[in-house]
Amino acid sequence: MALDVASLNEVMVVAERTTVEIKLDKKVYNIGKDLTTAGGTVSDALNNVPSVAVDVEGAISLRGNENVRILINGKPSAMAGFGDSNILSQLPAEAIERVEVITSPSARYDAEGTAGILNIILRQKETLGFNGSVNLTAGNPDNLGVSATLNYRKEKYNLFSNFGWRYSDAPRTTFTDVDYYDTYDEDGQLRELEFRKIIEDQNVDRLSRNYNANIGMEYFLNESSSVTGSLFYNFGNDSDISTNNSDRFNDSYTLIEQTLRREKETEKDNKYQVALNYVKRFGEDSDHKLTADFQYEKDKEDGLTYLNEDYVFTDPSNSDVFQIEQEYTYEDQKEYLVQADYVLPLGKDSRFEAGYRGNFKNSNTDYQLEQEDIENGNFGNLVVNDTISNIFDYTENVNALYTQYGSKIGRFSYLFGLRLENTQLKGKIDSRLTEQELVAEFGFPIDTDFNNNYLGLFPTVNFIYNLNTSDNGNEESVTLGYNRRINRPRGWYINPFPSRSSRTNVFQGNPNLDPAYSSTFDLGYLKRWEKFTLTSSIYYQHETDSFERVQENTGQTTTDGIDIIRTIPINLATNKRTGAELGLMYNPEKWLRLNSSFNFFQFETEGDFNGVDYGAKNTSWFARFSSKVTLPLAIDWQTSAFYRGARQDAQSDTEGIFSLDLAFSKEILNKKATVSVNVRDLLNSRKYESVTTTDFYSRYSEFQWRQRQVNVSFIYRFNQRLNNKDRSGERGNGGGDDMEFEG
User: Fold this and answer.
1) Residue 425 to residue 398: CA distance in whole angstroms
2) If you average pLDDT over residues 55-70, what whole number do you get?
3) Where is mean pLDDT largest: 88-102, 119-133, 166-180?
4) 165 with 171: CB under 8 angstroms?
5) Which GO terms describe its molecular function (predicted)?
6) φ, ψ at 7 (rounded to 5°)
7) Continuous segment of H or E residues that includes residue 147
């Protein structure tokens, strides 16, 4: 079974188009020249991929499920933010060559991520000699960026690099309207409410400066082996300045108090990654190979938040002085990856594979809260709050072995795999309070030292049957997949020490969280004609011990009488998901290209916590439509529309969201350069609206992470021509998993 080098070369040839390829375990979307993401980020590009959605806060979901694993070139990476997708909003979209949407991952991949995997393959030029590109971007609200890709390739080695700088100053707005219900104490007595309604209006200026660089070298030891080394570095310097106006009403809904809170948050983030890759091919069969990988990643974040609140007006006889507060957060993360994969072809149409992967991660978070000492009359003097301040040391070690076997029989191909993973999660909290003092302070026990271990087997089964293939490009196939996945609790989800997102909201992790396990079945169909392509699938997922974040009243209040709300993650008994998706691509003429996709899903959750039933059943959907038209004077015009339907969870109802993007571009300078103009969220309608209802309050929220954005971009390319002598596909970029089993 020869490696399909022709298909790899084809990917490079059609890189200016957005196409889809169906593999045994994945769909491959070649991003190409997506005009609406020019000058944008990787998050912007992902938001245009079918089955994927990026919400207004930057959270990435696959088929409506946010528990998705993000990989870069087939591996976990600092470029994916140590599992935090925020860095993807800092990397330029032009860095992407293609995105692999893996809803039925083979045994080679980590079992992490119940929704599946998004594998982002970065661009890698294979042309001999010196080549590259430079991209300049300017936008409003303030958005400035410069990025460059430079490569130098000879027969024996390849030098590659990517550099980027980005500056943005984007406004963010939040509006909340909270109505508090009557509640009763343990003796059945009605509690007196300080306020019946609170309305808050927050405006944030988000200043972000980001630098990133990725440099490396691939050296061909001989015709059968190569070594690749690379270094990635990212530095971020962010500053958020916010003002929050709060109006407070009594039982008669009369405004009796108004406050203004000012908050300044600064964060500096340094991260780097060192990666080594070795590939050894045996004999004349390029598929018989051994690959080995080593990665070391380190991330250091320093954060400071200063908060001050004053009365605009209040009742002087019933006023409390607000405390000035400062929060310090120091976070240090380290991660090692060791991996080895062996592939053995068995005859012409079969293949055996086995390997090992070890992920070893440690993070240390030092959180300190300082508050003004108003109790002792020391105004302006800040002292450490021993109740909240803590140091959390967290270790996650995952060792995995896998094996898989695949074969092709006529039009039928299959791939069976089994993965064994052992997980160790350890957490220790250094607090200034004893365990007895912690219980007295918070009213419930806090586990300050825990060690959880579990072993899991994860089978995968994938089939593909080609109903029809022909030389004129027509194609028809059916795929069927099954996989078992895991969602591990980590980080803030298991840190039992409460941390504050505001004076009235506390987030507390749950060290008793069990891992969530899911089993998923996926049936897909592809039909390709000369000008029309149809993709479709239906899927079912059954998840046990799924995570759900719930809110409850702590029974405590602030100095000015506002209830303090706790958010805590819990295990639900089950989460059942059923869904279907449909994709259509139609190219009737050379000057017209139409794409659309539709994803419908239903989920049903069951479970309770502290006597409250959090079961829910909901249906939601999202859809995309894009068109690309070539106008006179060779001007390309692209329109992209997205709608996400309303949805519900255990405590919240969220309204639907619509957004519209528009872009124009033209190639100039003998097609060596491209100038483009795009508008993201043309109607400024990408706002998150929700209603959260609990036993003690009802809250309406409206949130806009980013307003309408207009960008102008200029890209200049030099010496970028496809060379038939390129060693396409030789580099271990993680994008070739199971490519041989295309059926």
Assistant:
1) 9
2) 76
3) 166-180
4) no
5) siderophore uptake transmembrane transporter activity
6) -70, -30
7) strand 143-153
Whole-angstrom Cα distance, residue 83 to residue 337?
14
Find the distance separating the first CA and the last CA of the chain, reported in whole Å: 11
Q: What percent of the chain has pLDDT over 90?
A: 47
- pLDDT over 60 (residue 64): yes
For 443-461, letters b (16+ CB in 10 Å) and e give eeebbbeeebeeebebebb
Residues paired with residue 524 on neighbouring β-strands, in sequence order? 479, 537
- A 10 A CB-CB count for 387 gives 16
Beta pairing partners, 500: 506
Full set of structural domains in the chain with CATH: 150-718 (2.40.170)
pLDDT (tens digit per residue) in 389-443: 889 999 999 999 999 999 999 999 999 999 999 999 898 888 877 777 777 666 5
Q: Please say if the pLDDT value at position 4 is more than 70.
A: no
Task: Quote the radius of gyration of the chain (alpha carbons, Å).
Answer: 27
- At residue 5, the 3 state secondary structure works out as helix
| E-strand stretches of 112-224 | 116-122, 129-140, 143-153, 157-180, 197-222
Residue 503: CA atoms inside 13 Å, Cβ hemisphere, count? 22
- Which pair of structure tokens corresponds to residue 375? 């109790």
Of 496, 584, 576, 586, give the one whose Cα is nearest residue 542: 576
pLDDT confidence of residue 18: 43
Asked whether residue 493 carries a pLDDT value surpassing 90, the answer given is no
CB burial class (10 A; 0-12, 13-18, 19+) of residue 253? exposed
Residue 411: strand pairing partners = none
What pLDDT does 330 receive? 93
> Which residue reads 């500053």 in tokens?
239
Enumerate residues 6+ apart whose C-beta is below 8 A from 406. Answer: 24, 350, 351, 353, 413, 414, 415, 416, 738, 740, 741
Nearest to 233 by CA among 175, 300, 138, 142: 300
Instruction: Answer for the pair 660, 634: CB distance below 8 angstroms, yes or no.
Output: no
